Amino acid sequence: MFRKYDQKQQFLLPLALEDFVPENHIARVLNDIVDVVDITAIESTYSKEGCPAYHPRPLLKILLYDYLIGIRSSRKLQQMTQTDTAFMYLAAMQKPDFHTICRFRSTHLGPIKEIFSQVVTFCKEMDMIGSSISIDGTKVKANASSRQSKSSDALEKEIDKILKESIETDKHEDEIYGDSTPYQIPEELVDKKKRLEKIKAAKKKLDEEKLKKINITDNDARIMKHKDGSKKPSYNCQVAVDEKEQIIVAADVVNEENDLHQIEPMIQNVKNTLGYKPTIVLADAGYFSYENLEFLQEEGIDAYIPDNFYKAEKEGKTRKFRKSLFTYDEEKDCYYCPAAFEIPFTRIQKRKGEPDLRYYVCSYCSQCVLKNACTKSGKRTITRDPSTSIPNYGKNWTLKSALVNVFSMRKPQTDKNKHELKIFVFTCFHSWFIEDIWNRCTREHLMEDMRDKLNTEKGTEKYQKRMSTVEPVFGQMKQDRGFREFLLRGKRKTGIEFVMMCTVHNIKKIADFIKREGKNLKSMLKMIVGGGSKGWNKGGIRARITNTLC
């Protein structure tokens, strides 16, 4: 009726580690990948003298698998090496304690980051990466309390409070011990001294960077607003995800709340990882700026980035006339509103590090029957953002060549004498030159051109792929792996922790790809490396990675 159950039974032959996990288990995929990555940088930090250390490869395996299944505690990891068969398989039955695991993670942050690049290179060699990427960011809470974020005045008060308590403690000890010294400093005084050092360091950083507030526990974290409306000390985690298989090709952690300044560094990160720049870049409105569009144009990258009002205006949710309904007159340097009133140029707003902004203010709003549909204020204001530089026509540009080009494009159909011909060409050139200078010296056309591109069938189809490319990545990290708060502190360490999370994400994508395509991972890795799984030959992937990272 029942199968035989005997916990004391003995095996005739010993079990092999290979029997601990099923053939299609993701631990095997992780194991095969880590077996061929180059860990020379980690191995070089160990000494041949003294007691033999745990080999870094199994430590790296259990650490990455730890992140893959959503467990990041070193104490929990120590327990799993004793109770979980997948961890036993990866660690080869070795049982490092949590001190060893924690020390390994903290000591080898730099080389661990390089492993991310190697895994991305594997993906590239497996033809899992295309030419279109989506860039996005998500807020992840820092390992710090909101209550520890304080202003300069609050820090000064706490410093004074601790110093006062320290003086009182010294006075109390003098009454008890006199001129003698106790063998041990009181524990409460030691804690206060440590906190005082932290507060002074935080105060120094706050003053140097001219911040409003700083967190004492994690000085690099910043108060950021999350999607649920809460404000917490956090980091902004940036990723560039390839469209083909959702491979993360670049990752970074910044402490700026918005994404406005992240396009250029993320493109550079993609170049460093892949060795080339992407052909197409998709990003949401948080990345829109004239500077970003100009940068992407100069790089020759086809970008799809809407402005902040594009979606609202397209869905008809705006309560006032959008700017595109106002017509600009280049000769008069003014706008005309939908009611045909003239909106003249009024003033210039100076901006630090950016070109001056031109303001146009309407004086007829009080008389206009369309005012309620246009603005709630007394006067409707339109701004025009100029370019940062005068147009560059190239090294070989000359007035003569320009005149020849204009004449060839606008050649008169009737016979004219030489004098009339000169006047005609000069007039044409003058008109074209002024118009071209004006068009290039304003940046409004960048937004208008982007909107026109997004409104095309091709543009709409491409931009819709952004959400299905990058949004699932954050969902898998936060929901499936529980990555909602950093374990480490400081921008450098949190950056490495996030890269580790991105590395295991890519390993999971490799596992899914291999399973779907029915391919053998070991044979593919052997072909990519160009040798056995024990080494990296000179013509193999190690050389390609070195060239990519240079």
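Second entry:
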Amino acid sequence: MFIHETKRGKLLVVGFGPGSRAHMTERARRAIEESDVIIGYNTYVDLVRDLLTDQEIVRTGMTEEVSRARAAVREAKAGKTVAVISSGDAGVYGMAGLIFEVLVEEGWRPGDNPDVEVIPGVSAAQSCASLLGAPLMHDFVCISLSDHLTPWPLIAKRVEMAAQGDFVIVLYNPKSGRRTRQIVETQRILLRYRRPDTPVGLVKSAYRARQRVTLTTLGKMLDEEIGMLTTVIIGNSTTFVHEGLMITPRGYQRKYTLSRDEQPLAPHERLRPEAEPWSLAAMTGRGNDADAAGAWQGEAYAAADAEPVPNAFATAEAGAALLAAGPSTSAAEDERPPSFPVLEVAVSPGVANKTFTPQQLRTLAETVGERGEMVYTPDHCIVLRLPDVADADGVRRRLEAAGLCVLPVGNVVRVKACDFCEGEKPEAIPYAEELARRLDGLPVEKELKIGFNGCGMSCYGAVREDIGIVYRRGAFDLFLGGKTVGRSAHPGQKVAEGIPPEELVDLVQRVVEEYRTHAQPGERFHKFFKRRGAAGFRWNAGAAAPTPEEAVCGE
């Protein structure tokens, strides 16, 4: 009696990378060459045509993924070696997951017929990033905008969470002939959390014949061609562009000096908690033991449950790029009435102007209504708190139409100028206005105030702000590192005097950009300046130390 045993089959799920043979792994090439059957989407079969000999080819079009997976399982169970091919990595929006799902439905377990091997490839995120520079050097997420299989509310929620978490975001399947709104909605969500000038890279057909690489910004990306073959990479708050390269810093500048061979910290000092004040060990003060981590988790993540309220305007210019903000809903929330976050903005009649007109005050009162608030501040502005605002951009337009300057609140740059003796000493006003135009509203680690006085009297106390500027005898004096509150409050140190007016704005901008780039998490400017200096200026530790005074009302 003869017993016929079915030959064990092999199911090879192959990711062959972007399509160029030079970027295909050796294992992927051998898998295709050793297979009896090749199964794939039409375009993918064409991309590996030069590797095919006498294999049986099963090729199908879009939306036929399930039929391809079932055919592959059937042929492999019959004892054949079957290669199911995907571009990029088969385990990233490829066929690997679907193959396993079909096998599970048929009761398959590891060790059963057929044997399954998933062969990794270079994903689209990786290949496109390599053409842009180094945009994925810090934490990133990949999100497909295709809602053919995933509900759009879930996709939108993931986009919003990624934006809140300051992830670099890689968008797959951003747009097709039928799906055109998804990328528009995605941009709208991201502009609630990121600056319009956030770098964005668009890569079409990476390492293929029709490759196209475009650098743009979040605010302008919809002006470019985006389609199904495009991968979109959106930078985080630290991503920058240098000579056509999109770069996301890993964070080395927090601890190392990149322009020096000799580092301030010895190798054995670099992993200590005191060298990493932003680390969990340093923040808990209890080292890296598990108990400390548990204690911190209860404290830190309780706050994380609260829904964050984004600033309506990332910069003064950002307001123009914001689209009308709508509520984020999920399928379970469709029946609930819409709810919107509280909008907080700062308004003033101008950088040098301290006088509100009656019409401007009426506009403020009408905008706030019965449920909002107007809060006077010592920063030459009024903060408006407006509940349930559905159209933030409309609010901005109305206030600006009344002649008001509108700025975000929170951890942003704020230019505070004097009244220039009620306009009788106007020489320095254009420089204060240019500083405000360039810097007001830029996001920073901690609120950064730039004090600007139009004469040597300095009666508005500019020298006690983070950055102090005093106009005197046709030139400017610059003070850095002031501290306005607390028992150790002190003026900034004068780091330069006699600065020519035409050099002032660029110099101050360099100081601010260095703080934005190199500050540690939550580090105030006066601490940053003492630790690192800025724009070539250094804190003089030998200067007379201020004498602490008891705060009458406490701290």
